[in-house]
Amino acid sequence: MNPHPDFWTWFHRGSGACTYVVSDPVTRHAAVIDPVLDLDLLRSRVVFESVDRVLEHLGERQLELDWILETHAHADHLTAAAVLRDRSGGSIGIGSRIVQTQSFFASLFNLDQQFRADRSQFDRLFLDGESFALGRLKITVLATPGHTPDSMTYLIGDAAFVGDTLFRPGGGTARCDFPGSDARALYASIRRLYELPDTTRVFVGHDYPADGRCPDFETTIGAQKMGNIHLRATTSEAEFVALRAARDRTLAPPASWVPALQVNIRAGALPDPEPNGRRYLKFPIELQGHPLRPCPQGAFHEHDEKDSPA
Q1: Using CB atoms within 10 A of its CB, is residue 12 exposed (0-12), middle (13-18) or buried (19+)?
Q2: Quick one: pLDDT band at residue 236, thresholds 50, 70, 90?
């Protein structure tokens, strides 16, 4: 039987992102899922507070970091994967379809020869259904595309780390206006997750608490099937696709998508310093009357309403 893993969660209020440390209680081998690197946009600086807390946790509990696992290339925060690997070792893993995201954004940002869209920035590219070890634990990878082409779910014991594919039941499902997104693919991915036992614990990639509510990261497959506001057990594909399309038309781009994606397609590595010793990220602009859209299909629809995550 797969031994029961230990979990630790850190909530990043700036982006609503959840970082998880998963470890084998016997061997103390550990994985970090979706680590966050803090970005202060107003001051154009990167801060290491969040990743320092992860490193402190690893040190205090004498955990050996084997894996840094990305559920997908995030658009709303910078990943700390490269920083973790540099400071504590471990291999960075992501879904094999990351190259599609890399290729699109390398073109959009007109990245120079410092960057190659060939997946080489990551140590391990996961295929659907493969498994690997974390001490005595077995981690199984499920491809769950839809939000992004490279979206993956990691199954560890009775727990599923689903990234942005599912939020808490009251939060619904991931948006599908990202380049390479596909609402029908997301529907199929969630239906696949719904085939897991109802008691399977679901750890979401984000929470957006309001009205003083504390962040809540954990739910179950059974709770999702019964109460997810976008896709219940009885929801048809046509109903979901129509709902998702209507919802996505009301969503603004994530505030940090420009810097986040330039860093995250590099597995968290910042661009090399220029001759003056400073590092730079590009920011594409639009001319009046000629709106820039991140995707020819209209990804990240522009609108005048309040930004919303899901």
Answers
A1: buried
A2: very high
Closest residue by Cα to residue 96 from 122, 77, 114, 78: 122
The candidate with the shortest Cα–Cα distance to 104, out of 177, 182, 164, 180, is: 180
Assess if residue 84 is contained within a domain. yes
Number of domains in the chain: 1
Strands 6-12 vs 218-220: parallel, antiparallel or unpaired: unpaired
Strand bridging mode 36-40 / 78-79: antiparallel
- Torsion, Cα 100 104 107 111, to 10 degrees, reads -70
Q: Which domain holds residue 172?
A: 6-264
Whether the model clears a pTM of 0.85, i.e. scores above it, the answer is yes
Q: For residue 15, what pLDDT is reported?
A: 79
Report the distance separating Cα 111 and Cα 289, nearest Å: 25
Q: Tell me, what CATH number does 55's domain have?
A: 3.60.15.10
CA distance 197 to 18: 23
Residue at 256 is within a domain: yes
Is the residue at 260 inside a domain? yes
The answer on pLDDT for 309 being more than 70 is no
pLDDT value of residue 42: 80
